[in-house]
Design goal:
The chain has one domain. It is mainly α and 203 residues long. It has 9 helices and no strands.
């Protein structure tokens, strides 16, 4: 699937275009740029094949921000984090529970994703577990937005697809959106309990 109804000339530059999309996702993770529009655009132009590419770019950007905070800008990031008591509780909870909690935070974090990439560099979690938890935890949200873009592509190109395929695509998109919403609400409830537990911990 190398054609695109949005940009027909992408066939000639397919690999380079995907690499550019990965680079945009990486920069967004570093520069506080919202990533959902990038995921939507990737799905619209490339379909679901863009999912692993955008996820890789997102994870790489998160790892770079993590390393910058840990080794270059630690004192500056620590000063910012010190102004927010709830953020300190979240980081303490990560230190106590490790990559499992970090994975949940990637699903539904009270801290914006790009900022979290830097703040997590202040925790004691290792680079390997951080990268793995970031990739696994970010995957559902990235897949959701890429899928929405891909569904929009099918809808806009409805003349070349059957009505049955279009209906199933839109139904799948709706069910996926509901699932992500319900999971996100559940994760936020779990995180609220765990952060509150850290606040009550006298240590």
């Amino acid at each position: 699937m190398t054609e695109s109804f949005v940009l027909p000339f992408l066939g000639e530059y397919w690999t380079a275009s995907l690499a550019l999309m990965a680079g945009l996702a990486m920069v967004a993770s570093l520069a506080f740029i919202p990533r959902p529009p990038i995921c939507l655009a990737a799905g619209l132009m490339f379909g679901l094949v863009a999912f692993p590419v955008v996820l890789a770019g997102t994870t790489c950007g998160a790892v770079i921000a993590f390393l910058l905070a840990r080794y270059l800008f630690r004192s500056r990031v620590a000063r910012i984090a010190g102004r927010h008591a709830r953020l300190k509780l979240v980081m303490d909870a990560i230190d106590a529970e490790g990559w499992r909690l970090l994975g949940l935070l990637r699903l539904a974090s009270p801290v914006p994703g790009s900022a979290a990439n830097y703040f997590f560099g202040l925790t004691q979690i290792g680079l390997g577990p951080y990268a793995a938890a970031t990739a696994l935890g970010s995957a559902p949200r990235v897949l959701a937005f890429v899928y929405f873009g891909a569904a929009a592509r099918v809808a806009l190109d409805a003349q070349s697809v059957s009505s049955v395929k279009l209906a199933f695509t839109l139904l799948g998109c709706t069910l996926f959106a509901c699932t992500i919403l319900l999971v996100g609400r559940r994760v936020k409830a779990i995180l609220a309990v765990r952060v509150a537990a850290r606040a009550d911990d006298p240590r």
